[in-house]
């Protein structure tokens, strides 16, 4: 197997294991918080929400740092060290016996989970501009499959105790480190590296770097708006399904599994072909348009069959992020791929920080007693408007050949 294939395979495995690890924890985290803090479920949900935001904030600040470090030291050492610390972090969460310690553990998960930046930079190093969207599609598929399998496995492991999934996540991360030590080669030659600069590695410096390349800030803005809109599914789906459709927990789980399968299949089977045929900009356009149609469909859905039928729109929606990531990569030089991937990870994290206020606040209002009418699907209307704004900005971007 060539160095290029080894690198791509390791990144795929890393993203898959990371997403499984995060998913493993989801079913048991509320119970662990209640056990450790001696609190009820409502308080555990509140604390869990603050933890999620703190995790996203940590990723926001650490993503550009790790991306810039990988431009200086190379992808291999930065990525492997981040994975080592992530494995120890899962172990810390497994033995933590106070809420502050769990909180710290989740913040560290956000920090070291930002290894996504050097991982994506490694892929950019070894792939051609024409193949990047396809490769990023495979990576998104690996994340989607891991995110579907993680909660299911975590729920089963939770039968042996609320800490069991943390031990398994730690073991998986350590095994991934060993795998990387054996097969993952360095993808950034010494002559293409640059000195590390805190000015460029902090979020403000990353924004400055994004402005330095023609068209970079435009793609960043599109990606940010798209991230906010696309978070409507993971952040509001369970609440929406109960309030709008009256689904049980098992039905919600089945629907999430179906969505994961659709996303993974479309990333593998459609993304590369459609980007090759239409180009990254037009492929992203197609994806956003179908996403908007999907958001409107869910805003209007009243029956279970309508909700499942609307999942057809999700297939083409999966074109958007890989295409935008490839557009960012085209605007980077070989020496700044890590920095640019760090910028993209930071933007995704910023979108995750903003999304709860944009999406959950109107949903909470229109399901409350003071609302003028009952409308649990308000978040999907907001998502459709946000996606429309991203589409308008996308179509105004100039085409770049690189």
Defining traits:
single chain, 402 residues, mainly alpha, 19 helices, 80% helix
How does this model look, in words?
80% of the residues lie in helices and 0% in strands. The chain contains 19 helices and no strands. Helix 12 (232-245) packs parallel to helix 18 and helix 18 (337-366) packs antiparallel against helix 19. It is globular and about 60 Å long. The two termini are 28 Å apart. The relative contact order is 0.15. The model has no long low-confidence stretch (mean pLDDT 79).
Concise overview:
With 402 residues, the protein is mostly helical. 80% of the residues lie in helices and 0% in strands.
Category by helix and strand content? mainly alpha
Helical run tally: 19
Q: What is the arithmetic mean of pLDDT? A: 79
Distance from N terminus to C terminus (CA atoms, Å) equals: 28 Å
Give the proportion of residues in helices: over 70%
Assign an overall shape.
globular
Strand content range? under 5%
Largest sheet: none
Radius of gyration: 20 Å
How do the SSEs run, as a string of H and E? HHHHHHHHHHHHHHHHHHH
Poorly predicted residue ranges: none
Q: Please tally the β strands and state the result.
A: 0
């Amino acid at each position: 197997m060539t160095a290029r294939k080894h690198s791509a395979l390791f990144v795929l495995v890393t993203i898959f294991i990371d997403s499984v690890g995060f998913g493993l924890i989801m079913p048991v985290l509320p119970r662990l918080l209640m056990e450790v803090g001696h609190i009820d479920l409502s308080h555990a949900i509140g604390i869990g929400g603050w933890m999620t935001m703190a995790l996203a904030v940590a990723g926001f600040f650490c993503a550009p740092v790790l991306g810039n470090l990988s431009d200086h030291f190379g992808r291999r050492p930065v990525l492997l060290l981040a994975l080592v610390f992530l494995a120890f972090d899962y172990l810390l969460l497994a033995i933590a016996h106070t809420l502050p310690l769990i909180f710290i553990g989740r913040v560290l998960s956000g920090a070291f989970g930002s290894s996504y930046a050097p991982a994506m930079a490694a892929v950019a190093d070894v792939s051609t501009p024409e193949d990047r969207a396809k490769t990023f599609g495979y990576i998104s598929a690996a994340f989607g499959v891991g995110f579907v399998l993680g909660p299911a496995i975590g729920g089963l492991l939770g039968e042996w105790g609320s800490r069991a999934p943390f031990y398994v996540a730690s073991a998986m991360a350590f095994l991934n480190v060993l795998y990387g030590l054996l097969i993952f080669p360095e993808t950034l030659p010494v002559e293409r590296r640059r000195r590390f600069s805190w000015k460029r590695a902090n979020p403000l410096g990353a924004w400055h770097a994004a402005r330095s390349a023609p068209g970079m800030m435009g793609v960043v803005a599109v990606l940010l708006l798209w991230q906010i809109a696309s978070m409507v599914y993971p952040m509001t789906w369970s609440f929406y399904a109960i309030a709008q459709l009256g689904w049980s927990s098992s039905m919600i789980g089945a629907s999430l599994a179906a969505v994961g399968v659709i996303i993974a299949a479309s990333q593998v089977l459609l993304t590369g072909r459609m980007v090759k045929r239409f180009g990254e900009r037009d492929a992203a356009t197609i994806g956003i348009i179908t996403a908007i149609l999907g958001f409107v469909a869910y805003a209007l859905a009243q029956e279970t069959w309508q909700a499942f039928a609307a999942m057809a729109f999700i297939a083409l929606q999966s074109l958007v992020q890989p295409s935008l990531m490839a557009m960012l990569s085209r605007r980077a030089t070989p020496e700044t791929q890590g920095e640019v991937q760090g910028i993209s990870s930071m933007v995704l994290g910023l979108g995750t920080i903003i999304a709860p206020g944009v999406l959950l606040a109107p949903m909470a209002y229109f399901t409350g007693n003071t609302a003028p009418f009952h409308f649990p699907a308000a978040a999907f209307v907001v998502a459709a408007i946000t996606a429309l704004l991203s589409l308008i900005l996308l179509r105004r971007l100039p085409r770049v050949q690189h």
